Amino acid sequence: MQRVIWTILAAFVMAIAFGPVVIPWLKRMKFGQTIYDLGPESHKKKQGIPTMGGIIFAVPALIAAFAFSGEGRTDFLLMAVVCALGFGLIGFVDDFIKVKLKRSLGLTPKQKLVPQIILSAGLAFWAYKHSLIGDSLIVPFFGSEWNLGWAYIPVMMFILVGVVNSANLLDGLDGLCGGCSMIDFASMSLICLLMARAYPENSANLLNIAIFCAAMAGALLGFLRFNFYPAGVFMGDVGSFFIGGALAGACLTTRLSLLLPVIAFAMLVSSLSDIIQISYFKITHGKRVFRMAPLHHHFELSGMPETRVVIMYYIVTLLLCLVALLGFVA
Amino acid sequence: MQRVIWTILAAFVMAIAFGPVVIPWLKRMKFGQTIYDLGPESHKKKQGIPTMGGIIFAVPALIAAFAFSGEGRTDFLLMAVVCALGFGLIGFVDDFIKVKLKRSLGLTPKQKLVPQIILSAGLAFWAYKHSLIGDSLIVPFFGSEWNLGWAYIPVMMFILVGVVNSANLLDGLDGLCGGCSMIDFASMSLICLLMARAYPENSANLLNIAIFCAAMAGALLGFLRFNFYPAGVFMGDVGSFFIGGALAGACLTTRLSLLLPVIAFAMLVSSLSDIIQISYFKITHGKRVFRMAPLHHHFELSGMPETRVVIMYYIVTLLLCLVALLGFVA
């Protein structure tokens, strides 16, 4: 557990040191955010704040994860890193097109979805064939497992693509996605530590995922220093896709995907509120359930200050992570 | 450890439920804050926001601590509760006078200090005579103890009065004192859990302090919902003195007072910056080290937005608490 704490501290220090180098560079390269025309009015002032800040935490997280991992098997770590880097790369391409072609929406939805599906299919198949992962998911709180058979592959593809796009949707207020996912990674790290005790035959792999999650938590804590309200940098799609990929990768390897609706509840409601809003709008030909989707914009337009919405999301995430921990502690 | 999590959740739920009852009542009773004339200009708009919100977390924390504690010895818990309640009461009197007599500064410094000294003398003597506490302090990271002999009593009095007044000084920005101390209590709770394993002969007492700290952390998390920027309620002296007393009480019983400069670093710098500012001003007949003391006002007046200062304090506190944990984990 000392190693986990050192990982957090190292990743944090790197992110804090990296920020003041990367932010001016992003500004010089004119990677400023083109604010989405459909967002709330009050967000117009955010025009010109640099985006693609995700590299401020992605690079330190990867360095710290590799530096502090090691002992024994590293195949889980490799899978999680491929998942985070793969989705992060798709986000990077999207950001790059957004900024360079001045198209506020970047890639078209289809252009984003196709590589995501291909990547998730590859990852799901890799996990399915892996001797320590296979076709079953852990059912938390019930101490049982859910065998999916061949259905594991489409289910896991749906989860991977879902988490990544939900993380992307959650990234709508200063510090929202970074802070909530920092809490997720911190609790996932603790859960992996506890699981490593419960599954001694696979402890090396589980400890490496604990280190990976700790590296993400530490790096995100450093990033929050620059991204909290009022934000000096946005993470961009490269950031939110990397976060989604890293979280999904940690769950894919540890078979804890069924924990995602609990720990990543903030991401889930972002997606669900968006889906509900769009479906209802189409069915009723123009009516809305929320003032604006995703849900955090609804709260904002209901008169709640941005910072208060963000802290509410943090609090709910923290409590749900504590609930998730209940399934793993004595 | 499950019991600790349940304590956090219960205290949180009570605080969240208690807030919407207490805040309108405080408003009706006209317990609005009279903003200290010497604070930054930008704080003038905070005039009229209700104060004495400390009861929103103090009452739920005490209820949760009593409800979830119990097994075996409860003398440590009793001492910590007396410490928190005693100092909280002094704060309450101060707030009450401030509001009812419309004196912005409440009690005079001497009127505040005398009861604090009397209370801390009683508590220090009680701990000194206690068979499981005595005259020594644990030296973290070195695995040793520091025997103070009779000097334990004045040293501990200094620590108690120091922590309580430092917590009070830290309470200058929305969510600052509440959030930082929430992190302190969460890590103290974890440290007590780890210590309970290391000292099995005293585990019942240490577990009860873990529960006490968890109750404080959960209740403060609920309070932050109302106190984070832009604050809808302030904790007042009743709140900051209660926090200081609870933290000091947890350290008094567990003999972990030497950990305070690490985990309560934010409180320490608030006090130190105030002392440095005043001393330097007196020595140089009018020169200042900081733009304004305590230090968080200096950052604010240097152009850092209030929320950014608060999140910086949270981040530093969290990292230092992780460092403190390094001394207790394998």
From TrEMBL, chains A, B:
GO CC, alphabetical: plasma membrane
Entry cofactors: Mg(2+)
Residues spanning the membrane: 6-26, 47-70, 76-93, 149-170, 182-200, 206-224, 231-252, 258-281, 311-329
Reactions this protein catalyses: UDP-N-acetyl-alpha-D-muramoyl-L-alanyl-gamma-D-glutamyl-meso-2,6-diaminopimeloyl-D-alanyl-D-alanine + di-trans,octa-cis-undecaprenyl phosphate = di-trans,octa-cis-undecaprenyl diphospho-N-acetyl-alpha-D-muramoyl-L-alanyl-D-glutamyl-meso-2,6-diaminopimeloyl-D-alanyl-D-alanine + UMP
Subcellular location: Cell membrane; Membrane
Pathway: Cell wall biogenesis; peptidoglycan biosynthesis
Molecular function as annotated in GO: metal ion binding; phospho-N-acetylmuramoyl-pentapeptide-transferase activity
InterPro entries documented for this protein: Glycosyl_transferase_4, PNAcMuramoyl-5peptid_Trfase, PNAcMuramoyl-5peptid_Trfase_CS
EC number annotated for this UniProt entry: 2.7.8.13
BP GO annotations: cell division; cell wall organization; peptidoglycan biosynthetic process; regulation of cell shape
Keywords noted in UniProt: Cell cycle, Cell division, Cell membrane, Cell shape, Cell wall biogenesis/degradation, Magnesium, Membrane, Metal-binding, Peptidoglycan synthesis, Transferase, Transmembrane, Transmembrane helix
KW Metal-binding (keyword) present: yes
Main location: membrane
Membrane topology: Multi-pass membrane protein
Binding site for Mg(2+): N168, D237
Enzyme class (EC, first level): transferase
Summary of the function given for this chain in its UniProt record: Catalyzes the initial step of the lipid cycle reactions in the biosynthesis of the cell wall peptidoglycan: transfers peptidoglycan precursor phospho-MurNAc-pentapeptide from UDP-MurNAc-pentapeptide onto the lipid carrier undecaprenyl phosphate, yielding undecaprenyl-pyrophosphoryl-MurNAc-pentapeptide, known as lipid I.
Family: Belongs to the glycosyltransferase 4 family. MraY subfamily.
The protein's name: Phospho-N-acetylmuramoyl-pentapeptide-transferase
Species this protein is from: Candidatus Pullichristensenella excrementigallinarum
Biological classification of the source: Bacteria, Bacillati, Bacillota, Clostridia, Candidatus Pullichristensenella
